[in-house]
Write the structure tokens for this entry.
Amino acid sequence: MTALIRYRQEAGRATVTLDNPEKRNAINLAMWRELRRVIEAASEDEGVRCVVLVGAGEHFAAGGDLEEFLTLRATLEQALVYHEEVAGALTAIRHCQHPTLAMIRGACIGGGLEIAACCDIRVCDASARFGAPISKLGFSMYPGELSGLLKTCGQATVAEMLLEGRVLDAAEAARKNLVSRVVAPEDLQGEVDAAVRRILAGAPRVASWHKHWMRRLAHDAPLADEEKAAAFAFLDTKDYREGLRAFMEKRQPRFTGN
Amino acid sequence: MTALIRYRQEAGRATVTLDNPEKRNAINLAMWRELRRVIEAASEDEGVRCVVLVGAGEHFAAGGDLEEFLTLRATLEQALVYHEEVAGALTAIRHCQHPTLAMIRGACIGGGLEIAACCDIRVCDASARFGAPISKLGFSMYPGELSGLLKTCGQATVAEMLLEGRVLDAAEAARKNLVSRVVAPEDLQGEVDAAVRRILAGAPRVASWHKHWMRRLAHDAPLADEEKAAAFAFLDTKDYREGLRAFMEKRQPRFTGN
Amino acid sequence: MTALIRYRQEAGRATVTLDNPEKRNAINLAMWRELRRVIEAASEDEGVRCVVLVGAGEHFAAGGDLEEFLTLRATLEQALVYHEEVAGALTAIRHCQHPTLAMIRGACIGGGLEIAACCDIRVCDASARFGAPISKLGFSMYPGELSGLLKTCGQATVAEMLLEGRVLDAAEAARKNLVSRVVAPEDLQGEVDAAVRRILAGAPRVASWHKHWMRRLAHDAPLADEEKAAAFAFLDTKDYREGLRAFMEKRQPRFTGN
């Protein structure tokens, strides 16, 4: 079987491509598993500073691979395995230590929308459209997949997409803050490159600290004393001293990740 | 006493009309009770697929019926009864098994805003305005009513409406995602009809499953194994098989609710 | 040492000015302490009805005073003290009994953004810009400071500002509901004055009740019976009776805070 997830790494940027363009990058079970594997590997890789998720061709991803549902998701046992794999891949994206960015053209539907919603940043062009009209397919979204969508999009927008089966265009998605920003098709790659440069200009470990605290604060429980102390892990790093020094000397910092 | 809540049902669509136009549909205690009753009945009714809430005449609802406050809400005991009734009606809307849609013209103020915020989808025309300037009346919103507002509108927008007493026009409400969308007055009925058609095109039980999971995931507690299994209730339905088959055969599905 | 926090009170409006314009109102430890002190005093002051936070000159505040970090925040012990002071000042703003309004021009960055996010209402002019590009300085935001930002701005916008280090202009901040509204520079003072007038037109105690319930409902725990009863504290006030009476008589109410 050909791998339908491509992985490329260059100068701190990992690019994960959903590569099934004849099916508008519909995601099958093997792809979900591979997606989880490459994201978890990228998360552990010290050479990676930023992960860009993108679809091959004109679309991000049009959803799950429905044909498989008749064979690989036919029983309750299968369904639990299948969707825990999907949820596992989404959790891997959310827990990735490095900032994740979805670069979105065309259809960002169903599983594609779930992936994009679990990324930290979503940049799209005017061709993008967003939704999950699965009520027309007769099934409901797995709660482990729905949770990420709710965190990013909020209840009202999710209700519109799931209950009404509405598909939002790029402008409406921007108005509802479902995407971070919309650009013209010819500017999409440039905007993503600029975002990656901004991410790479920061100290490497700061991003994973921020991601940790953002996840932690989503839970309504007070911080323990050890957690408060852990929030100052930066004090012992060379990058912190370099960052402050560069600021005082009005020059660009040279971060090493130490 | 004339019933000031009208209920009509036709082809899967239930329409609940706040019908007190001389008072801009100000809602009195009898109306809150009746609202709860008709919504709970619609929720149980298998013939209903979608509930549209609308105000008679040029307004959605201008708030509670203040004259009553001097007689029916004068003591703490009365107030607890009164506002638990209001909160009960709002909870009935939120827990309605079928998608709920507020169709909004003119004033959507106080209790009217509370009702709209508990619906899944809010469509308004350019005449709509939103707020709850009750600080000028010298009383605070009951927490059981405030909670729905916070879930839909978010803390910052609620602060503007409650603390500043600001009333938002349709454009600002759209920018703040307080409404799902705004259309011209002559297009409002058409937009609502289109939304209802989209809802009716989905499998009946999927909507109530989605509504259940959206409410459940608002609580920060992990899913039990039984809950995960329950998320696949669709596997045993004819509608799920019909939905997938129709998709494969590139035709419209014929759902039966089974 | 000159006090770099100025406090003025006039006709129910307290104005707190960050006054360190040579450093674009960068906030040092002494200022955080003083900010907490004046806000806590204003909160207790029955003569105050509304607190406006503003920066002297062309900026709101450009962040913390970084030079101090090398001396006053060098060790873990120092850092815990330092940032608990910052978090304490932010909590004082959030818990202030009276509505708080940030009036924003120019840089609203880092600590400045944290302050603005803890206010109830944010009004800015077109010169405002928002962000926290501290990844370039090599340190992460203290969770006790990050939490207020997440509550107001939401996870997606915070991710853009912290992970990407992006600075948002006024229009984008409005689209993302990071500010309540944007006006032209020449209209900023007028818009803030109008907001203050709207706040002053309300009954004094209603604002603090609403602030209490909004904070309380951010926690996912059911209300106790005593809390439900406490929600009707207004029943025993003269202002409630005056508010209703004025409404019936179609005149402006005269509130006394009793």
Remarks:
- Chain A has a mean pLDDT of 95.
- The radius of gyration of chain A is 19 Å.
